[in-house]
Automatic annotation (TrEMBL):
Family annotation (InterPro entries): SET_dom, SET_dom_sf, SET_domain_protein
Family annotation (PANTHER family): SET DOMAIN-CONTAINING PROTEIN 5 (PTHR47332:SF4)
SMART domains: SET (SM00317)
Residues annotated as domain SET: 61-228
Pfam families: SET
Record protein name field: SET domain-containing protein
Length: 403
Protein backbone atom coordinates (compact mmCIF):
# COMPACT_ATOMS: atom_id res chain seq x y z
CA UNK A 1 0.00 0.00 0.00
CA UNK A 2 1.57 3.32 -1.02
CA UNK A 3 1.19 6.30 1.24
CA UNK A 4 1.85 9.98 0.77
CA UNK A 5 2.20 12.19 3.82
CA UNK A 6 0.81 13.32 7.16
CA UNK A 7 -0.36 11.52 10.29
CA UNK A 8 -2.80 12.34 13.07
CA UNK A 9 -0.01 12.97 15.56
CA UNK A 10 1.68 15.68 13.52
CA UNK A 11 4.57 14.05 11.67
CA UNK A 12 4.99 12.86 8.11
CA UNK A 13 6.99 10.44 6.05
CA UNK A 14 6.87 9.04 2.56
CA UNK A 15 7.16 5.34 1.81
CA UNK A 16 5.35 2.04 1.78
CA UNK A 17 4.05 0.48 4.97
CA UNK A 18 4.84 -3.14 5.79
CA UNK A 19 2.52 -5.60 7.50
CA UNK A 20 4.52 -8.38 9.05
CA UNK A 21 4.23 -11.03 11.75
CA UNK A 22 7.33 -11.46 13.90
CA UNK A 23 9.20 -13.65 14.56
CA UNK A 24 8.86 -14.80 10.98
CA UNK A 25 9.40 -18.52 11.61
CA UNK A 26 7.50 -18.71 14.90
CA UNK A 27 5.92 -22.05 15.67
CA UNK A 28 2.29 -22.19 16.83
CA UNK A 29 3.28 -21.97 20.50
CA UNK A 30 5.72 -19.09 20.18
CA UNK A 31 4.26 -15.66 20.97
CA UNK A 32 4.14 -13.36 17.94
CA UNK A 33 3.60 -9.67 17.29
CA UNK A 34 1.59 -8.34 14.37
CA UNK A 35 3.48 -5.30 13.09
CA UNK A 36 2.63 -2.26 10.97
CA UNK A 37 6.00 -0.82 10.07
CA UNK A 38 7.44 2.06 8.11
CA UNK A 39 10.15 1.10 5.60
CA UNK A 40 13.35 -0.12 7.22
CA UNK A 41 12.03 -1.18 10.61
CA UNK A 42 11.72 -4.87 9.79
CA UNK A 43 15.30 -4.78 8.49
CA UNK A 44 16.50 -3.22 11.77
CA UNK A 45 15.29 -6.37 13.53
CA UNK A 46 16.44 -8.83 10.89
CA UNK A 47 19.98 -7.48 11.16
CA UNK A 48 20.17 -8.18 14.90
CA UNK A 49 22.39 -11.17 15.53
CA UNK A 50 20.43 -14.09 17.01
CA UNK A 51 17.06 -12.32 16.61
CA UNK A 52 14.75 -13.12 18.25
CA UNK A 53 16.22 -13.96 21.62
CA UNK A 54 13.95 -16.18 23.78
CA UNK A 55 11.60 -14.62 26.29
CA UNK A 56 12.54 -14.73 29.98
CA UNK A 57 10.30 -16.52 32.43
CA UNK A 58 9.67 -15.51 36.06
CA UNK A 59 10.62 -18.26 38.49
CA UNK A 60 6.91 -18.75 39.44
CA UNK A 61 3.62 -17.09 38.44
CA UNK A 62 3.55 -13.51 39.67
CA UNK A 63 0.15 -11.93 38.97
CA UNK A 64 -3.49 -12.34 38.16
CA UNK A 65 -5.97 -10.00 36.45
CA UNK A 66 -9.24 -9.24 38.19
CA UNK A 67 -12.02 -6.61 38.38
CA UNK A 68 -11.55 -3.53 40.59
CA UNK A 69 -14.49 -1.28 41.48
CA UNK A 70 -14.14 2.02 39.59
CA UNK A 71 -11.12 0.96 37.56
CA UNK A 72 -12.29 -1.84 35.30
CA UNK A 73 -9.74 -4.62 35.47
CA UNK A 74 -6.34 -4.52 37.12
CA UNK A 75 -3.38 -6.79 37.89
CA UNK A 76 -2.46 -8.02 41.36
CA UNK A 77 0.64 -9.78 42.63
CA UNK A 78 0.05 -13.38 43.64
CA UNK A 79 3.20 -13.58 45.75
CA UNK A 80 5.81 -11.41 47.42
CA UNK A 81 8.01 -9.73 44.82
CA UNK A 82 11.37 -8.18 45.51
CA UNK A 83 12.80 -5.06 43.88
CA UNK A 84 14.21 -6.09 40.49
CA UNK A 85 12.14 -9.28 40.19
CA UNK A 86 10.81 -10.05 36.72
CA UNK A 87 7.00 -9.98 36.76
CA UNK A 88 6.35 -10.85 33.13
CA UNK A 89 7.95 -10.79 29.73
CA UNK A 90 5.62 -10.52 26.77
CA UNK A 91 5.72 -9.92 23.07
CA UNK A 92 3.18 -7.23 22.11
CA UNK A 93 0.00 -8.27 20.34
CA UNK A 94 0.50 -5.29 18.03
CA UNK A 95 3.39 -2.99 17.20
CA UNK A 96 2.15 -0.18 15.03
CA UNK A 97 3.10 3.15 13.58
CA UNK A 98 1.35 5.86 15.63
CA UNK A 99 0.11 7.49 12.46
CA UNK A 100 0.22 6.77 8.75
CA UNK A 101 0.37 9.17 5.85
CA UNK A 102 -3.02 10.09 4.49
CA UNK A 103 -4.08 11.84 1.30
CA UNK A 104 -5.00 15.47 1.88
CA UNK A 105 -8.32 16.14 0.14
CA UNK A 106 -8.92 19.77 -0.84
CA UNK A 107 -10.98 22.04 1.37
CA UNK A 108 -10.90 20.10 4.66
CA UNK A 109 -10.77 22.08 7.89
CA UNK A 110 -8.05 21.16 10.36
CA UNK A 111 -10.53 19.16 12.43
CA UNK A 112 -11.83 17.34 9.35
CA UNK A 113 -8.30 16.53 8.26
CA UNK A 114 -7.46 15.21 11.74
CA UNK A 115 -10.55 12.97 11.53
CA UNK A 116 -9.60 11.86 8.03
CA UNK A 117 -6.12 10.92 9.28
CA UNK A 118 -7.58 8.97 12.21
CA UNK A 119 -9.85 7.10 9.78
CA UNK A 120 -6.87 6.28 7.57
CA UNK A 121 -4.92 4.90 10.53
CA UNK A 122 -7.95 2.81 11.50
CA UNK A 123 -8.04 1.31 7.97
CA UNK A 124 -4.38 0.31 8.23
CA UNK A 125 -4.52 -1.19 11.71
CA UNK A 126 -7.71 -3.06 10.83
CA UNK A 127 -5.62 -4.98 8.31
CA UNK A 128 -3.08 -5.82 11.02
CA UNK A 129 -5.84 -6.98 13.40
CA UNK A 130 -7.36 -9.21 10.69
CA UNK A 131 -3.96 -10.87 10.26
CA UNK A 132 -3.69 -11.73 13.97
CA UNK A 133 -3.95 -15.23 15.37
CA UNK A 134 -7.54 -15.66 16.65
CA UNK A 135 -6.51 -15.76 20.34
CA UNK A 136 -4.43 -12.59 19.96
CA UNK A 137 -7.23 -10.84 18.13
CA UNK A 138 -9.72 -11.77 20.87
CA UNK A 139 -7.30 -10.55 23.56
CA UNK A 140 -6.73 -7.27 21.70
CA UNK A 141 -10.42 -6.57 21.11
CA UNK A 142 -11.20 -7.32 24.79
CA UNK A 143 -8.98 -4.45 25.99
CA UNK A 144 -10.42 -1.22 27.36
CA UNK A 145 -11.15 1.72 25.07
CA UNK A 146 -11.27 5.17 26.64
CA UNK A 147 -11.33 6.91 23.23
CA UNK A 148 -14.87 6.11 22.19
CA UNK A 149 -16.03 9.67 21.72
CA UNK A 150 -13.11 11.51 20.18
CA UNK A 151 -13.33 10.29 16.59
CA UNK A 152 -11.02 7.30 17.06
CA UNK A 153 -12.20 4.08 15.46
CA UNK A 154 -12.56 0.99 17.69
CA UNK A 155 -9.05 -0.29 17.00
CA UNK A 156 -7.25 3.05 17.20
CA UNK A 157 -9.23 3.73 20.39
CA UNK A 158 -7.85 0.55 21.96
CA UNK A 159 -4.36 1.49 20.76
CA UNK A 160 -4.59 4.97 22.24
CA UNK A 161 -5.81 3.61 25.59
CA UNK A 162 -3.32 0.78 25.96
CA UNK A 163 -0.15 1.63 24.07
CA UNK A 164 3.33 1.71 25.47
CA UNK A 165 6.07 3.50 23.56
CA UNK A 166 8.29 1.27 21.48
CA UNK A 167 11.57 2.90 20.45
CA UNK A 168 14.62 1.79 18.54
CA UNK A 169 12.91 0.23 15.53
CA UNK A 170 13.22 3.12 13.10
CA UNK A 171 16.51 3.29 11.24
CA UNK A 172 16.52 6.97 10.41
CA UNK A 173 13.24 8.62 11.34
CA UNK A 174 13.01 11.32 13.96
CA UNK A 175 10.23 12.81 16.06
CA UNK A 176 6.88 11.16 16.59
CA UNK A 177 7.28 8.79 13.69
CA UNK A 178 10.44 7.31 15.17
CA UNK A 179 8.36 5.92 17.99
CA UNK A 180 5.96 3.05 17.49
CA UNK A 181 3.10 2.07 19.76
CA UNK A 182 2.90 -1.39 21.24
CA UNK A 183 -0.19 -2.99 22.74
CA UNK A 184 0.39 -5.90 25.10
CA UNK A 185 -2.10 -8.38 26.49
CA UNK A 186 -1.03 -8.28 30.15
CA UNK A 187 0.83 -4.99 30.63
CA UNK A 188 -2.28 -3.29 29.21
CA UNK A 189 -4.23 -4.46 32.27
CA UNK A 190 -2.07 -2.46 34.68
CA UNK A 191 -3.70 0.68 36.01
CA UNK A 192 -1.88 3.94 36.51
CA UNK A 193 -0.34 5.23 39.71
CA UNK A 194 1.80 8.34 40.22
CA UNK A 195 3.83 6.14 42.63
CA UNK A 196 4.02 3.02 40.46
CA UNK A 197 5.48 -0.21 41.77
CA UNK A 198 6.52 -1.58 38.36
CA UNK A 199 8.43 -0.40 35.29
CA UNK A 200 8.75 -1.93 31.85
CA UNK A 201 11.67 -1.99 29.46
CA UNK A 202 11.49 -2.81 25.79
CA UNK A 203 14.02 -5.47 24.86
CA UNK A 204 14.59 -5.17 21.13
CA UNK A 205 16.61 -8.42 20.98
CA UNK A 206 13.56 -10.48 21.99
CA UNK A 207 10.97 -8.00 20.67
CA UNK A 208 9.32 -7.94 24.04
CA UNK A 209 8.52 -5.96 27.16
CA UNK A 210 9.96 -7.00 30.48
CA UNK A 211 8.01 -5.81 33.49
CA UNK A 212 9.95 -5.51 36.76
CA UNK A 213 9.10 -4.75 40.38
CA UNK A 214 10.76 -1.42 41.23
CA UNK A 215 10.39 -1.98 44.98
CA UNK A 216 9.34 -4.84 47.21
CA UNK A 217 5.69 -5.70 46.59
CA UNK A 218 3.44 -7.60 49.00
CA UNK A 219 1.33 -10.57 47.89
CA UNK A 220 -2.10 -9.29 46.79
CA UNK A 221 -0.91 -5.71 46.09
CA UNK A 222 -2.14 -4.03 42.92
CA UNK A 223 0.56 -3.74 40.26
CA UNK A 224 0.71 -0.23 38.79
CA UNK A 225 2.49 1.52 36.01
CA UNK A 226 3.07 5.17 35.03
CA UNK A 227 0.99 6.44 32.10
CA UNK A 228 2.41 9.98 32.29
CA UNK A 229 5.75 11.29 33.59
CA UNK A 230 5.54 11.15 37.37
CA UNK A 231 8.08 13.86 38.11
CA UNK A 232 5.57 16.49 36.90
CA UNK A 233 3.24 18.30 39.30
CA UNK A 234 -0.16 16.74 40.13
CA UNK A 235 -1.96 19.22 37.86
CA UNK A 236 0.34 18.45 34.92
CA UNK A 237 0.02 14.72 35.53
CA UNK A 238 -3.75 14.93 35.49
CA UNK A 239 -3.60 16.76 32.14
CA UNK A 240 -1.64 13.81 30.77
CA UNK A 241 -4.22 11.40 32.20
CA UNK A 242 -7.36 13.15 30.94
CA UNK A 243 -7.45 11.18 27.70
CA UNK A 244 -7.63 7.97 29.78
CA UNK A 245 -10.91 9.22 31.20
CA UNK A 246 -10.23 9.01 34.93
CA UNK A 247 -9.19 11.31 37.74
CA UNK A 248 -6.18 9.98 39.59
CA UNK A 249 -6.84 9.43 43.29
CA UNK A 250 -3.44 8.08 44.32
CA UNK A 251 -1.94 9.37 47.58
CA UNK A 252 0.39 11.80 45.74
CA UNK A 253 -2.57 13.41 43.95
CA UNK A 254 -4.70 13.55 47.09
CA UNK A 255 -1.95 15.42 48.95
CA UNK A 256 -0.73 17.42 45.95
CA UNK A 257 0.92 20.49 47.59
CA UNK A 258 3.20 18.43 49.85
CA UNK A 259 3.88 15.82 47.20
CA UNK A 260 4.62 18.42 44.50
CA UNK A 261 7.18 20.09 46.80
CA UNK A 262 8.94 16.78 47.38
CA UNK A 263 8.93 15.96 43.66
CA UNK A 264 10.31 19.43 42.83
CA UNK A 265 13.14 18.88 45.34
CA UNK A 266 13.96 15.59 43.63
CA UNK A 267 13.91 17.21 40.19
CA UNK A 268 16.47 19.78 41.38
CA UNK A 269 18.96 17.22 42.74
CA UNK A 270 21.89 15.91 40.72
CA UNK A 271 24.30 13.61 42.59
CA UNK A 272 27.64 14.76 41.22
CA UNK A 273 30.42 12.53 42.55
CA UNK A 274 33.34 14.33 40.88
CA UNK A 275 32.21 17.76 42.02
CA UNK A 276 32.17 16.52 45.63
CA UNK A 277 35.54 14.74 45.24
CA UNK A 278 37.23 17.96 44.18
CA UNK A 279 35.42 20.30 46.56
CA UNK A 280 37.52 20.32 49.73
CA UNK A 281 35.18 22.81 51.41
CA UNK A 282 32.56 20.08 51.75
CA UNK A 283 32.83 17.38 54.44
CA UNK A 284 33.77 13.84 53.42
CA UNK A 285 30.25 12.57 54.03
CA UNK A 286 28.50 15.49 52.24
CA UNK A 287 27.42 13.53 49.18
CA UNK A 288 26.34 10.53 51.27
CA UNK A 289 24.12 12.74 53.43
CA UNK A 290 22.56 14.47 50.39
CA UNK A 291 21.95 11.16 48.65
CA UNK A 292 20.31 9.65 51.73
CA UNK A 293 18.03 12.67 52.11
CA UNK A 294 16.86 12.33 48.51
CA UNK A 295 16.51 8.56 48.78
CA UNK A 296 14.10 9.18 51.65
CA UNK A 297 12.10 11.50 49.40
CA UNK A 298 12.02 8.85 46.67
CA UNK A 299 10.73 6.28 49.12
CA UNK A 300 8.21 8.74 50.60
CA UNK A 301 6.88 9.49 47.11
CA UNK A 302 7.10 5.91 45.81
CA UNK A 303 9.24 6.98 42.86
CA UNK A 304 11.65 4.07 42.80
CA UNK A 305 11.46 3.70 39.03
CA UNK A 306 12.77 7.18 38.14
CA UNK A 307 16.25 7.59 36.67
CA UNK A 308 17.36 9.69 39.65
CA UNK A 309 16.94 6.67 41.93
CA UNK A 310 19.46 4.74 39.87
CA UNK A 311 21.79 7.80 39.77
CA UNK A 312 21.68 8.17 43.55
CA UNK A 313 22.37 4.50 44.27
CA UNK A 314 25.26 4.58 41.79
CA UNK A 315 26.59 7.77 43.40
CA UNK A 316 26.44 6.14 46.87
CA UNK A 317 28.46 3.19 45.58
CA UNK A 318 31.00 5.46 43.90
CA UNK A 319 31.24 7.81 46.89
CA UNK A 320 32.15 4.89 49.14
CA UNK A 321 34.77 3.81 46.62
CA UNK A 322 36.16 7.36 46.67
CA UNK A 323 36.32 7.04 50.47
CA UNK A 324 38.01 3.62 50.27
CA UNK A 325 35.14 1.76 51.99
CA UNK A 326 34.73 -1.44 49.95
CA UNK A 327 32.30 -3.00 52.44
CA UNK A 328 29.77 -0.16 52.13
CA UNK A 329 30.38 0.19 48.38
CA UNK A 330 29.63 -3.52 47.86
CA UNK A 331 26.28 -3.13 49.65
CA UNK A 332 25.32 -0.32 47.26
CA UNK A 333 26.61 -2.36 44.31
CA UNK A 334 24.19 -5.13 45.34
CA UNK A 335 21.37 -2.58 45.37
CA UNK A 336 22.44 -1.22 41.98
CA UNK A 337 22.22 -4.73 40.54
CA UNK A 338 18.47 -4.74 41.17
CA UNK A 339 17.75 -1.96 38.64
CA UNK A 340 16.90 -4.50 35.96
CA UNK A 341 14.39 -2.16 34.30
CA UNK A 342 16.87 0.69 33.83
CA UNK A 343 18.64 0.81 30.49
CA UNK A 344 21.51 2.67 32.18
CA UNK A 345 22.23 -0.34 34.42
CA UNK A 346 25.89 -1.29 34.55
CA UNK A 347 27.73 -4.49 35.28
CA UNK A 348 28.62 -4.37 38.98
CA UNK A 349 29.40 -8.08 39.37
CA UNK A 350 33.08 -7.44 40.21
CA UNK A 351 32.12 -5.02 42.97
CA UNK A 352 29.72 -7.29 44.86
CA UNK A 353 32.53 -8.83 46.90
CA UNK A 354 34.21 -6.25 49.17
CA UNK A 355 37.45 -8.29 49.06
CA UNK A 356 37.54 -8.11 45.28
CA UNK A 357 40.79 -6.76 43.79
CA UNK A 358 38.54 -4.70 41.50
CA UNK A 359 38.26 -2.14 44.32
CA UNK A 360 41.91 -1.29 44.60
CA UNK A 361 42.15 -1.11 40.82
CA UNK A 362 39.11 1.14 40.58
CA UNK A 363 39.87 4.56 39.19
CA UNK A 364 37.97 6.21 42.05
CA UNK A 365 39.54 4.15 44.84
CA UNK A 366 40.26 6.53 47.76
CA UNK A 367 40.51 9.55 45.46
CA UNK A 368 38.83 11.70 48.07
CA UNK A 369 41.95 11.14 50.28
CA UNK A 370 44.82 10.11 48.04
CA UNK A 371 44.10 11.98 44.89
CA UNK A 372 45.39 9.30 42.56
CA UNK A 373 45.04 9.76 38.84
CA UNK A 374 41.71 11.54 39.23
CA UNK A 375 43.39 14.21 41.39
CA UNK A 376 46.33 14.66 39.03
CA UNK A 377 46.23 17.60 36.65
CA UNK A 378 45.71 15.30 33.67
CA UNK A 379 43.01 13.29 35.44
CA UNK A 380 41.07 16.43 36.34
CA UNK A 381 41.31 17.71 32.78
CA UNK A 382 40.04 14.42 31.36
CA UNK A 383 37.21 14.20 33.89
CA UNK A 384 36.18 17.81 33.24
CA UNK A 385 36.13 17.10 29.51
CA UNK A 386 34.06 13.93 29.91
CA UNK A 387 31.60 15.54 32.30
CA UNK A 388 31.30 18.78 30.30
CA UNK A 389 30.34 16.84 27.21
CA UNK A 390 27.64 14.89 29.06
CA UNK A 391 29.77 11.81 29.71
CA UNK A 392 30.62 9.99 32.91
CA UNK A 393 33.58 8.71 34.88
CA UNK A 394 33.72 5.09 35.94
CA UNK A 395 36.12 2.36 37.00
CA UNK A 396 37.02 1.77 33.36
CA UNK A 397 37.88 5.40 32.62
CA UNK A 398 35.96 8.23 31.07
CA UNK A 399 33.03 7.79 28.79
CA UNK A 400 32.29 10.42 26.16
CA UNK A 401 28.87 10.55 24.54
CA UNK A 402 29.01 9.38 20.90
CA UNK A 403 26.56 11.76 19.27
C1 LIG B 1 -4.53 0.54 29.99
S1 LIG B 1 -6.13 0.40 30.65
C2 LIG B 1 -5.79 -0.34 32.19
C3 LIG B 1 -6.62 -1.57 32.43
C4 LIG B 1 -8.07 -1.30 32.54
N1 LIG B 1 -8.47 -0.93 33.87
C5 LIG B 1 -8.89 -2.50 32.05
O1 LIG B 1 -9.98 -2.73 32.59
O2 LIG B 1 -8.46 -3.18 31.14
C6 LIG B 1 -6.43 2.09 31.00
C7 LIG B 1 -7.78 2.37 31.60
O3 LIG B 1 -7.89 1.87 32.91
C8 LIG B 1 -8.55 2.78 33.76
N2 LIG B 1 -7.60 3.25 34.78
C9 LIG B 1 -6.26 3.16 34.74
N3 LIG B 1 -5.70 3.65 35.84
C10 LIG B 1 -6.71 4.06 36.62
C11 LIG B 1 -6.75 4.68 37.89
N4 LIG B 1 -5.66 4.93 38.59
N5 LIG B 1 -7.97 4.99 38.39
C12 LIG B 1 -9.10 4.72 37.70
N6 LIG B 1 -9.11 4.14 36.48
C13 LIG B 1 -7.94 3.81 35.94
C14 LIG B 1 -9.04 3.91 32.88
O4 LIG B 1 -10.33 3.58 32.45
C15 LIG B 1 -8.08 3.84 31.72
O5 LIG B 1 -8.63 4.38 30.53
Amino acid sequence: MQIKECDPYGGSTPGAMTFTRLPIDAGPDEPVSECLFFPGSKEVLMKLRGFPQPLLRPTAPTFRVTDIPGKGKGAFSTRVLKMGDLILNERPLLISARGVSASHPEGLTEAQYFQHSLNTLEEYVEIAIKRMRPANKAAFMALTNSHKEDGSGPIVGIMRTNSVACDGLSPDMKGDLASYSAVCKDISRLNHSCSPNTAARFDIASLSYQLYAVRDIAAGEELTYQYTPVNYSAVERQKGLNSYDFVCACTACLDAPASDARRAALAAFKPDVMEWVYDRTRPDDWLLVKCREHLELIEREGLQQIGLHFDIVKAMMEAYICLGDAQAASEWAARLKKFQWDDERTDVEALLNPASPAYKKHMLWRVRFDGGFMQSKLGKEFAALALASGGSVGSWGMVFPMK
